[in-house]
Each structure stands twice: as C-alpha cells, then as structure tokens.
C-alpha cells in the first residue's frame, strides 16, 4: 500500500491553507489541481470528497477533508515536523482550542458577516459563535498572548488560524487591528508560507493566462 501524500486543491480556494501546511511539513507530496464546476462536482472527485469541495488529502488509504482536520492529521501523522504539542503536553489544550475555535466560531461569524447574515442580538445565545464582535475580540486576545497560539512554538494551529486572519485582512472580513497585522505578518514571512504562496500564485497566473 502506498503512503503517498496527495493533496487535491485549487489555488483560489481554502486549499491554500493545506498547501501551506504541506510545505511546513517538509514531506514529499503530489498536488492534484481540481477545477471548479464539473471537475469538482463530478462523480470522480466526489468519490474522494462527497461535498465536492477542496481541499482533500489522501494519505495511503486514508482520506481527510476540512482544512483544520487536514492540519491536525498531518501534524500527528508526522510528529518529527514538530507542528503539534505532544500528547500529554499542557499546550495540547490551547493548540486544540484555537485550531477549532477558528474552524467553528471564526469561520461561521466571518462568513455570516460577509454575506449579511448576522443574527439579531437576541439570537446570539443560540449561535455557536455568539456574535461577530465577541468572536473577533476573543480571536484578538488569543493572538496577543504570545508569538504563537500554543506556547512559544509555531504549530499547525498557527497555520490554520493565521490563514483565516490573513485572508480576512486581505478581503476586509476581519477588522485591521494591530494584533492581527503583527501576528499575520510574522506567519506570512515564514519560508514555508512564502513557498506555498508562490506555488499557488504561479498556478493562478497560469490559469488566468490560459483562460
């Protein structure tokens, strides 16, 4: 059985998060670019991800979808990369906390705001994220407590949370606050982050030229 790592992605998608994680991992991998429309929604790709969305990771016989899950899976599958606190480490708590806070409340709050779907204040207690303001304030406190989210060491949580923040700052769905800009700037300057960005930007340029 092959243990090859295959990333199904598109350079104009959340697949950029998974690409960054792959570059941080330092393991050989193959990227399969899946086009929007029929390629992504067709039967062949839906056999990998029934949602018809990217990214998806295939590692041997294992299939993982959802960016946060891909980041967490890879960090544990390749512990030598040092991208997650070890089981039993006290920093495992904040690592999981902020990784899934970004995958849950942040993703939901930011998406709702972007599409004008904010719930009335009286409904906040029924929503997992409460309110956009509370979510963003909590995120700001999280990235203000130190260089990284899980103690003094960069982790997969920073890949995912940092991607959410950088994307939000770029497209105006997250407020430009000094803490976000400082945290995002540190992460964007990482060699793996730059490599991933260059790969996907080059792919985008090729697609635009061809299309």
Structural class: alpha+beta
Helix count, per DSSP?
9
What global shape is seen?
globular
What is the N-to-C succession of helices and strands?
A: EHEHHEEHHHHHH
Distance between the termini: 38 Å
Strand order of the largest sheet: 2-1-3-4
- Low-confidence region ranges: none
Mean pLDDT: 95
Taking the sheet with the most strands, its summary is: 4 strands, mixed
Instruction: Give the helix level as a range of percent.
Output: 40-55%
Q: Rg from C-alpha positions? A: 17 Å
DSSP summary, beta strand count? 4
User: Beta-strand percentage?
Assistant: 5-15%
Structure explained in plain terms:
By secondary structure, the chain is of the alpha+beta class. It is built from 9 helices and 4 strands; from the N terminus they run E-H-E-H-H-E-E-H-H-H-H-H-H. A 4-stranded mixed beta sheet has the order 2-1-3-4, with helices on one face. Strand 3 and strand 4 form a beta hairpin. Helix 1 crosses helix 9. The longest helix has 23 residues. It is globular.
What's the helix and strand layout?
Blueprint: E1 5-9, H1 15-25, E2 30-33, H2 38-41, H3 43-46, E3 56-59, E4 62-65, H4 67-77, H5 92-114, H6 132-144, H7 156-171, H8 178-188, H9 191-210
Helix pairs in contact: 1-4, 1-7, 1-9, 4-7, 5-6, 5-7, 7-8
């Amino acid at each position: 059985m092959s243990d090859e790592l295959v990333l199904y992605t598109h350079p104009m998608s959340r697949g950029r998060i998974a690409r960054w994680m792959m570059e941080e991992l330092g393991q050989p991998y193959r990227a399969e670019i899946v086009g929007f429309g029929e390629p992504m929604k067709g039967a062949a790709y839906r056999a990998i991800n029934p949602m018809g969305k990217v990214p998806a990771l295939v590692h041997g016989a294992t299939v993982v979808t959802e960016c946060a899950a891909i980041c967490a899976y890879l960090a544990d599958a390749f512990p030598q990369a040092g991208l997650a606190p070890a089981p039993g480490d006290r920093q495992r708590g904040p690592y999981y906390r902020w990784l899934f806070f970004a995958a849950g409340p942040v993703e939901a709050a930011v998406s709702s705001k972007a599409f004008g779907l904010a719930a009335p204040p009286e409904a906040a207690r029924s929503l997992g994220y409460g309110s956009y303001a509370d979510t963003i304030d909590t995120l700001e406190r999280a990235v203000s407590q130190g260089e990284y989210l899980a103690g003094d060491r960069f982790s997969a949580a920073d890949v995912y949370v940092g991607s959410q923040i950088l994307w939000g700052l770029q497209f105006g769905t997250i407020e430009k606050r000094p803490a976000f800009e400082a945290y995002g700037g540190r992460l964007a300057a990482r060699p793996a982050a730059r490599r991933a960005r260059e790969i996907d930007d080059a792919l985008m340029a090729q697609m635009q030229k061809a299309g």
